[in-house]
Amino acid sequence: MIWALYAGMPHWPTTPIVAAVGLLAVAALERIQPFREAWLEDHQDTVTDVLHLLVNLSVIQFTAEVLAKLGDAVPDSLRLFPVESPLWLQLLLVACVLDLSLYVMHRVSHRVPWLWRFHMVHHSAERLYWMNGERRHPLHAALMAGPGLIVLLAAGAPSAVVATWFGILTVHLAFQHSNLEYRVGWLRHVVGVAEIHRWHHKREFEDAQVNFGEFFMVWDRLLGTFYDSAGRLEEAEVGLHERDYPKGYLGQLTHPMKGK
User: Fold this and answer.
1) Which of 132, 167, 151, 152 has the alpha carbon at shortest distance from 52?
2) Could you tell me if 139 and 252 are in contact, meaning their C-beta atoms sit under 8 angstroms apart?
3) Most CB atoms closer than 10 Å: which of 31, 45, 173, 205?
4) Peptide bond preceding 13: is omega within 30 degrees of 0, i.e. cis?
């Protein structure tokens, strides 16, 4: 994706195609080297997760496309984004702005009751595998990324750079939630990989209000919410305390509107 950005290739359909290949690669690797064999089996969730994946990737792609195009339209006299900087620096800046937005909204969603009702969809998964990264209520997905996107829009960030980062993040979220036994050593203190993030999904979540980072762990480290949980999940279950949470897509879509 970064190569395509440097080559000036149109991000559509290049970025979605590369992202799709990345997602399929994670799915295949899970079959070869799973973290838990039991998580390879359907938990009455596959159809629901496919729908979440298709809807959320479409919504995110459309939203990012529209907002980013608006960013392209910002007059040069009002543009705050450093478009003359090297592309790698522009991409890093977009990544930091979006990731900070995702971190803040993620952490707030665990504390504000009405936001938690929407975020429960993501935590309702009773196994972790490659599609869980997109198991999100579409409204909550928009709320998570919205503040960062608005800042980038107002600053005039180039649409190609924003789209590239969303593509990278899509594949990363598949790795972050994957049922794949992989380790990255000290990099787990920098990047939100699966061995760190699984702890965040524990059913007994009282000690799991940590590791909120979507991509970078720098915000968790700076703000005191980082926990090095590598190798500590053992046989702990993931999911919600509420065992009767809807398993179907429409039920999960409407459940947050029903209150407690």
Assistant:
1) 132
2) no
3) 173
4) yes
